[in-house]
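Quick illustration for those who missed Monday's session on complexes.
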Amino acid sequence: MNSLAQTDQKINKLIQQEIKRQQNGLVMIASENYVSPAVRQALGSVLTNKYSEGYPNKRYYGGNQFIDQIELLAQERARQLFNAKQYHVNVQPYSGSPANLEVYFALLKPGDKIMGMALDQGGHLTHGHRVNLSGKMFRFIQYGVDKKTKRLNYQAIRQLAKREKPKLIISGATAYSRKINFRQFHQIAQEIDAISMADISHLAGLIVGQVHPSPFPFTDIVTTTTHKTLRGPRGAMIFCKQKFVKQIDRMVFPGMQGGPHNQTTAAIAVTLQEASRVIFRRYAQKIVINAQILAQTLKKEGIKLVTGGTDNHLLLVDLTNLSIDGQTATQLLSNIGIYVNKNMIPNDLGTPTKPSGIRLGTPALTTRGFRQQEMIIVGQLISQILHQPKNKQINQLARKQIKQLTKRFPLPR
Ligand code: DSN
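Prediction with D-serine bound:
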């Protein structure tokens, strides 16, 4: 059969253009990263040809002897890497959103009460937003950050939990730059006989690298995507304590999904192997150091940050003191090749499409090899653009500097 370039010139050209965009730009979207050539090789392999509905040694199709070994290897590596030997892990969820819904539908009945962090306070769509199936099918009680400190207030969360008595409490966020105390969340859940669930999608790589506290071995359920700080393919995993295995597995398949994406399972296994190396631990440490250097630089330049800084891989920029909204800032930065996302900040007076913040992350730049001096340059560039968006000279100079940086730090290929 012919190559992509011969078969489909249009798609091939678009992929080539996307390679250039990734190469020539600075990805600062906190949830994006660059996978290794090995992960991409597994993803692009013949495993995509195979149907494997069911679980290892319990399939509905023949010819799964190698797929079984791949899935078992992925499970074993996941348990090992997260120090979660007493947990069961399902590696089949297609991504983070289905994984979370699979947990809710496995363990609860529609209409049951769940507690999760509100999206506009730093949570995730599937943690109960009204437009998401989670918020439509379950009665969500939403907690947020403290009005003053913009940090999680565990006493307030405990009081809310005691008053509302949800059956499940979710910890985890997508736009919160401080450490999350998973142990406190678990204790609160225990006090009201609720199930504790941690969604560590953003933090998985930092937890593996021991630069963020782990939700293991106490949290009842842990979900994670595999493509953010963990630096793997787009996929997800659900860890659960032994008493939940049957319900979780049955809800993933046949409850919500059909055949697993075997090429993704193999790529997850490769990712877990890569993340077990000492060099990955150093990578996780550098992500956080880079985020903190970026935070210091921006603050020096007069840019406001929610909570004033970061403990992890991301920063939430509060634009309210600049005459610019999150949508415009995202566009301006994108124009010069810095990719970020607009984001609500706690108690935002803007709207989701025109919020008052942007979210910045360092996982992808750290993968490229950016260190302290590069993060300072990037911080200064961002500040200049946000302060003087219409200054043509600044824009031109920024483009030039980005060109130099991206040339010096190529993508992993
Ligand atoms: N949409 C992802 C993020 O950017 O944080 C979370 O799923």
